Model the fold of this input.
Amino acid sequence: METSHRIETGDARSLSAVADDSVELVVTSPPYPMIEMWDELFADLDPDVADRLDAGDGSGAFERMHEILDSVWRELRRVLVDGGIACINVGDATRSIGGRFRVFRNHDRISDAFERLGFDPLPEILWRKPTNSGAKFMGSGMVPPNAYVTLEHEYVLVFRNGEDSRQFEPGAQHRYDAAYFWEERNRWFSDIWTDVQGELQRLESDELRERSGAFPFEIPYRLINMYSVYGDTVLDPFWGTGTTSLAAMIAGRNSVGYELNPEFQALFDRRIEKLPERSRDVIERRLQAHADFVSRQRAEGETFDYEAERYGFPVRTKQERSITFYEATEAYKTGEGYAVAHEPVEDAPDTRT
Done:
């Protein structure tokens, strides 16, 4: 199997290089309106943002920033297939503007925008970021009532394009090959992820570090496995350091990324130098976690009615029998981005004991 990964340098408000109905899944983390590190980017795209911030008009600046993002969401409506899914990772912002401290609810504003465009909202996910400080509040310290809780969580907002879920032919093999484990489903499809942590950006350039977000690999990797199948294309209109493309490579999906700053692609070349090793590690960890699950269940007297056809280990449900893992064995550059060769994994941990 081979997957393709295209990187477009440009403004995602016009996804001109992406055809209508050509993307099955969107996974992205946009710049967060009213987070100070993104002020300059939004102001570059619309000078009115800077004018409103300078005037102390926080609500106006917030709305102008979101109007920029709205243009991207409209494009997602065009490029997503019927039943395609959009997953938007975003956090709210707290800030003092014009002498007034308040929270700016980015997740509410984005949800409203998607609903206005005709997307159906699906249950969202919250994940908790590790705090860098021992202080769990802002404001007046130990004296009530003027302290404020610290925002330590972000949202993965999930939307479906169209009224119905994607349709597949009965028994579509590529769908069943892309199955996840029963115990993974129980963890991944919880609405609160407590086992995912933010990542520090290790970028050589201070300017690039300031214009990138800490988007943990585990988030796009899970979402890609949850909401797409082998052969699908995943789009990230705010590509940044390419974490979504990296996750798509390891998950065996195609990807397209849009990024304003071309320097990030050179950094991504270094991120995938050890792609085969990272792919193997991710797969081995999933397989070992399943072997451990089987061992625990058997120790408690549980039995399994089904067996994975390729690997011979027990699985909980009939839908898992065709589960197949593809290791990324080689990545090479093409005229439009990258191609990745994948081979099916044949070995699995022994679960007989």
User: Anything to note?
Assistant: The chain has a mean pLDDT of 91. The two ends are 33 Å apart (CA to CA).
